[in-house]
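Run log // design_07
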């Protein structure tokens, strides 16, 4: 009976926690249950009997912080073919990194899905889940439940601080990452997973992907393309889906339309073209260099050079200040004409749009000046708030006057000595 009192399990028995105080075990089991439900809601449940996951808690070791590790091995027990376990040594006051525990537990749940999906005659000797998938699923669940933070995606969009998809998927450790790089990696992973989930039958495809990923021994990007065929549209198809997702997640809510300066600033960053150079590699040039795209030989090359810009403009049209929507429509027309090879009116259209944007910024500045004037002109009485500043200034002036007491005379002499040195 005593051994059973030291064990707490989830409702379905999928996670069993042993050790430490019952209150802590119950709290951890509740978090595990929530994580299981969120994953099933995101990608769908999986048929068959789930493999148990064990969490062993160890007491605090004086002078040492909390530490966590995971283990996997083929179990000789008949009732369970595999043993999935997390070992957690608690820190002072039974503390531990809850974020790391959530990541470890999700990693185990992904492994369990893969092992459960294996044919009965197959036995896995090694399992591995890459960091991008764990981070990405956690972000996707957070956004699905209204806990997503667009600020990191906005920063990612503005800085271009992401790594190539292939490098993102291939990374096996967080070693060498500072805190900012770690957050950008998580945001990039979240955008990638949500881009995959947004495809046709995305959740079902993700469920099948999770049924293979932990034991797949080839290039993981190959497995991604196998389960999500739409990412094969063009040589940089996956990058395009990914960047569109980052752009969508970085945008403000519908109730948070951009101001005129924000719309202008974002528009200036978006108006870029991406033609291929002589070596066939894409490069970035401003829209003023549209003739480089017009000179491309085929329509396919021209469309490829303008596609990313058109996508970003379409996303911007949902969030920009209302008077900028005709501007975005004008630039989309320019891009369409450029893709079709119709260039006769492009220069005139660009000049007109530039004039309109300059006029919008002038109107905004005039409106700001008018509001400032109205605020100052409508003041009927003094608030007295400036009096406090004047009193502080007067007190400081008084305190700087020379005093003739012995202490000040002594300090003056000491100051003279230091000044000579």
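design_07 sequence
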């Amino acid at each position: 009976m005593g051994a059973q009192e030291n064990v707490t399990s989830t409702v379905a028995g999928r996670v069993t926690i042993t050790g430490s105080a019952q209150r802590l075990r119950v709290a951890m089991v509740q978090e595990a249950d929530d994580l299981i439900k969120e994953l099933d809601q995101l990608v769908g449940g999986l048929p068959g009997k789930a493999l148990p996951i064990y969490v062993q808690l160890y007491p605090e070791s004086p002078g040492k912080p909390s530490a966590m590790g995971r283990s996997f091995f083929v179990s000789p027990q008949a009732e369970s073919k595999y043993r999935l376990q997390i070992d957690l040594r608690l820190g002072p006051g039974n503390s531990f990194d809850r974020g790391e525990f959530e990541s470890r537990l999700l990693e185990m749940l992904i492994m369990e899905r893969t092992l459960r999906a294996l044919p009965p005659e197959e036995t896995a000797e090694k399992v591995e889940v890459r960091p991008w998938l764990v981070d990405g699923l956690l972000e996707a669940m957070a956004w699905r439940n209204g806990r997503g933070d667009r600020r990191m995606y906005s920063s990612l969009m503005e800085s271009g601080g992401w790594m190539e998809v292939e490098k993102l998927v291939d990374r096996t450790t967080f070693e060498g990452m500072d805190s900012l790089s770690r957050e950008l990696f998580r945001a990039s992973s979240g955008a990638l997973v949500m881009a995959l989930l947004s495809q046709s039958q995305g959740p079902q495809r993700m469920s099948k992907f999770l049924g293979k990923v932990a034991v797949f021994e080839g290039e993981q990007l190959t497995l991604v393309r196998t389960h999500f065929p739409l990412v094969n549209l063009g040589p940089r198809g996956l990058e395009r889906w990914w960047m569109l997702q980052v752009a969508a997640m970085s945008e403000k809510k519908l109730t948070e339309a951009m101001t005129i300066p924000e719309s202008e600033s974002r528009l200036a960053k978006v108006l870029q073209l991406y033609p291929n150079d002589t070596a066939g590699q894409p490069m970035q040039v401003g829209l003023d260099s549209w003739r480089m795209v017009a000179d491309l030989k085929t329509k396919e090359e021209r469309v490829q050079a303008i596609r990313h810009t058109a996508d970003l403009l379409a996303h911007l049209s949902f969030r920009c200040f209302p008077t900028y929507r005709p501007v975005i429509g004008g630039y989309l027309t320019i891009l369409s004409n450029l893709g079709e090879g119709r260039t006769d009116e492009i220069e005139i259209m660009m000049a007109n749009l530039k004039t309109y944007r300059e006029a919008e910024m002038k109107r905004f500045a005039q409106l700001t000046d008018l509001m400032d004037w109205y605020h100052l002109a409508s003041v009927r009485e003094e608030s007295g708030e400036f009096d406090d500043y004047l009193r502080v200034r007067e007190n400081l002036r008084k305190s700087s006057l020379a005093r003739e007491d012995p202490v000040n005379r002594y300090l003056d002499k000491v100051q003279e000595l230091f000044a000579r040195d």
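The chain has four domains: 4-117, 128-250, 258-389, 390-420.
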